[in-house]
Amino acid sequence: xxxxxxxxxxxxxxxxxxxxxxxxxxxxxxxxxxxxxxxxxxxxxxxxxxxxxxxxxxxxxxxxxxxxxxxxxxxxxxxxxxxxxxxxxxxxxxxxxxxxxxxxxxxxxxxxxxxxxxxxxxxxxxxxxxxxxxxxxxxxxxxxxxxxxxxxxxxxxxxxxxxxxxxxxxxxxxxxxxxxxxxxxxxxxxxxxxxxxxxxxxxxxxxxxxxxxxxxxxxxxxxxxxxxxxxxxxxxxxxxxxxxxxxxxxxxxxxxxxxxxxxxxxxxxxxxxxxxxxxxxxxxxxxxxxxxxxxxxxxxxxxxxxxxxxxxxxxxxxxxxxxxxxxxxxxxxxxxxxxxxxxxxxxxxxxxxxxxxxxxxxxxxxxxxxxxxxxxxxxxxxxxxxxxxxxxxxx
Length: 395
Ligand code: NAD
Fold this sequence. Notes:
The chain is of the alpha/beta class. It has helices spanning 13-25, 124-136, 147-158, 179-191, 243-247, 292-306, 373-381; strands at residues 3-9, 31-35, 70-73, 77-81, 86-89, 94-102, 106-108, 118-120, 139-143, 162-166, 195-197, 200-208, 211-218, 224-229, 231-234, 238-240, 256-257, 263-266, 269-271, 276-280, 285-287, 318-323, 326-332, 339-346, 350-357, 360-367.
């Protein structure tokens, strides 16, 4: 039975960042990692962005093995016994630990139809499957108008594919962007050749010879019609992988609940990344963040704390995306249901959107505006009240 001073469940960016944190302090302690994917940790953002613009695949690896780690890949941890400090995996191996990190991420949500004919895009294997499909398929349905939908639709269109994008909201990225910006994006994608079908639910998908037939229902009229494509990719959100924490009776509520030191209901068990529900002081609320900066920063902090530091995680993570040639960085609560103020130097090309609530700035969207993330963080941390007019030109 392998014993590790540090056992990490999960094989993504958070896990790798934690190992870097551990190794900054403890170069000798034994580190084991159990990961469901057969690959060692890699950077996920290029899968929907840079790899479609020519970045070589070799550049995604995190080089985790260089940090003297035992990798147990292609395995799923099934049970956690806190009293025995023991994890058992699906292949019958038991592991014991001194400190444990749960960096289990999330699993794509699926439709109750379509089976494996719908590619729920998240992993390197998914990238390779989609690449292979692009060799001999031409017309792709992209289901979902969030991060995966908008990035994969652009990636496929930029690689000469016909794309039809289907999602329930009125505009691309509507949960994030103010309505006008989101509607602008529908037009922008259409100008790049993407067929954009907003306000549509996908209610069925059937295979018909070499084609896939999607049934889509209009959200307003409830009328249904079908569209035929060669392949279908979906990004309809993820569900945090909390099963192991639940099994052990750790606190779970929209993710694994951690304290400021990233401990999850036990001083020797930590959680980080997409799966962790943490408190952020600048926003004075709990968050669960499914983006790269949080994976890296929170993973690192968990590793440092597991190896002996006792610093709280107070970082307010940012995120970013590319939408054809447009790009942005964003930080804080960028929820389009909040009051928003746009400060555009060029409408929808370059500018800042402020998200406000109760006289405070809760979030900022930096649209083709760069190196202002720290300034935005400072603004979000200010207690207010802030006069909306004073925000013009602020970031
Ligand atoms: P998401 O939450 O960004 O988007 C989900 C989308 O699913 C919604 O916008 C909606 O359009 C769509 N949807 C929901 N129910 C639907 C239905 N019944 N029919 C059709 N569409 C439906 O999630 P995602 O795009 O799947 O991304 C998965 C995860 O990966 C997220 O955590 C995301 O943050 C992360 N990610 C981040 C980035 C980035 O930071 N740039 C890029 C890619 C993925």
